[in-house]
Design brief:
The protein is mainly beta. It is 10% helix and 35% strand. The strands form three sheets. It has a five-stranded antiparallel β-sheet with strand order 1-2-3-4-5, with no helix packed on it. It has a five-stranded antiparallel β-sheet with strand order 6-7-8-14-10, with no helix packed on it. A hairpin with a 4-residue loop joins strand 7 and strand 8 (179-185).
């Protein structure tokens, strides 16, 4: 501080300068050292400090890149009113947005927690026509992981599971529209109808595998009248001279859209 007082003493802080609004001198009785502090406080309103907490108001425009963040892990965005250990009573979200020159949102990255306890990070892109698409990864309230992405047939797209049923007669429905289903028909009837666990939209293909045991005769499973909701079957026992309609257990696999 002594050096600063010596340097400031070499300057002429006069009431005339203050009158021109160049230097904010409060009164003619201020010492030059006091005027230096007043000057520092005045200049601090024009610059962002290197240390300490500050509130920065107004729109800031950066004309060059990169805008680098130091390697220390102490830089963060704070989501007000949120406690990560509790479930909120209303939706909480904190996000950074990319705004175009007209003030429209072009993209957004942020964190969401819903009233059911689900937490997710989301990356959202807006097309300027009221539509948006997003990638999401998060936790459900029971701790299980979930992801979400847009449905797409592009080869480089991410494919997620829309719904599933992992049972004896079950299915997987994928985000690109593909559905895979499976099941077992017991040895109770030579003819019948199998209803899919979930319907297809437009197309299905069925394959079968015979599982019946205890017999040496060849078995044949005929699949016909395949639709988006079911297929019909007939089972036959084949011997050297003829085929007999006989109940046979078999497994089936169906793939389609």
């Amino acid at each position: 501080m002594a050096n600063e007082e010596i340097e400031i003493s070499e300057l002429e802080f006069t009431e005339e300068l203050a009158g021109d609004n160049l230097i904010p001198v409060e009164s003619t009785t201020d010492t030059k050292a006091t005027s230096l502090q007043i000057l520092k406080n005045w200049l601090s309103g024009f610059f962002v400090g290197k240390t300490g907490n500050e509130t920065i108001q107004g729109v800031k425009t950066f004309t060059s890149a990169p805008c680098a963040i130091a390697s220390q892990p102490s830089y963060y965005l704070q989501m007000s009113g949120y406690d990560n250990a509790t479930t909120p009573t209303e939706l909480k979200a904190g996000a950074m947005s990319i705004i175009d020159q007209k003030g429209n949102i072009a993209g957004r990255m942020g964190f969401w927690i819903t009233t059911d306890g689900s937490k997710s990070m989301r990356f959202i892109t807006f097309d300027g026509k009221g539509n948006n698409t997003q990638l999401m990864v998060g936790f459900k309230s029971d701790g299980s992981v979930f992801t979400m992405c847009p449905a797409s047939d592009v080869s480089s797209s991410i494919v997620t599971t829309v719904s599933k049923s992992k049972t004896g007669n079950g299915y997987y429905k994928l985000g690109n529209g593909l559905i895979i289903q499976w099941g077992t028909v017991p040895n109770t009837s030579a003819n019948g109808t199998v209803t899919y666990p979930t319907p297809f939209s437009s197309l299905s293909r069925v394959a079968t595998s015979i599982t019946d045991s205890g017999t040496t005769e060849p078995r044949v499973i005929r699949i016909y009248d395949t639709s988006t909701t079911n297929f019909k079957y007939s089972c036959y026992k084949q011997n050297a001279s003829s085929a007999t309609n006989t109940a046979t257990s078999f497994m089936w696999l169906a793939v389609g859209y």
